[in-house]
Design goal:
Elements lengths: L2 H11 L1 H4 L7 H8 L9 E4 L5 H8 L7 E4 L3 H10 L4 E3 L6 H4 L6 E4 L8 H14 L6 E5 L8 H7 L1 E5 L11 E7 L3
Parallel strand pairs: 1-2, 1-4, 2-3, 4-5
Antiparallel strand pairs: 5-7, 6-7
Helix pairs in contact: 3-4, 7-8
Bound molecules: S-adenosylmethionine.
């Protein structure tokens, strides 16, 4: 089965978890991965789906053994394990990272659809990632909306600043990439 057929089949079964009409296109996946460097020691991707962003991360020259993937959907996890040997694939929600992952992360790259989530869920996911990230390291989030993908309250509670990319029209729907960092202190 192709990645697209797998994605669409799971979208029909679990629309509230997936919340996108197609896998991320390569231009947006490259923008998500732009921050990754080959000398990074540990990177996590959350909501990896069928692996389009994963591929872009590895194309940046990061060794597969330095990449951990978190994905709720078991069928997607099976696909990720076969496509990306050497990576560690956790069939766990991203907010469990704090219990099962490795610390000292240089970056977290997120395809999890945070925009429609409650503040409590956004806080759990991003708070868990921040706990595992090195101080000031980036949390990269894709979004299809025109507003930041984390609420003003969550950004203020967690002390986050952000930058954002231009809108990427070659994606369905058009996307933007935000890079969040926790301000010192
Ligand atoms: C919009 S899809 C993106 C998939 C892939 N990253 C891509 O770009 O094509 C969102 C993915 O996040 C996963 N997901 C949703 N909530 C999650 C959570 N709390 N923890 C981990 N994965 C989650 C879904 O199962 C789905 O695979």
């Amino acid at each position: 089965m192709s990645d697209l057929s797998l994605f669409l089949g799971q979208l029909i079964r679990r629309p509230t978890e997936i919340r996108a009409i197609a896998p991320t296109a390569s231009a947006a996946a490259r923008e998500m991965a732009r921050i990754v460097r080959p000398d990074m020691q540990a990177v996590a991707e959350i909501g990896a789906g069928t692996g389009t962003i994963t591929r872009a991360i590895l194309d940046r020259g990061l060794a597969a053994e330095r990449l951990e993937l978190y994905e709720l959907n078991a069928a997607f996890c099976d696909r990720l394990r076969s496509l990306f040997p050497g990576t560690t694939v956790h069939n766990r929600p991203a907010q469990d990272m704090v219990n099962v992952g490795r610390g000292g992360l240089d970056a977290v790259i997120s395809g999890v659809p945070t925009l429609p989530m409650s503040d409590e869920m956004q806080h759990a996911i991003v708070g868990s990632a921040l706990w595992m990230l090195k101080p000031g390291a980036p949390f990269v989030q894709i979004t299809y909306g025109t507003q930041p993908p984390l609420s003003a309250r969550v950004r203020a509670d967690l002390g986050l600043t952000h930058t954002r990319s231009r809108r990427i029209w070659m994606n369905l729907p058009p996307a933007q990439v935000y890079v969040f960092r926790q301000a010192p202190g």
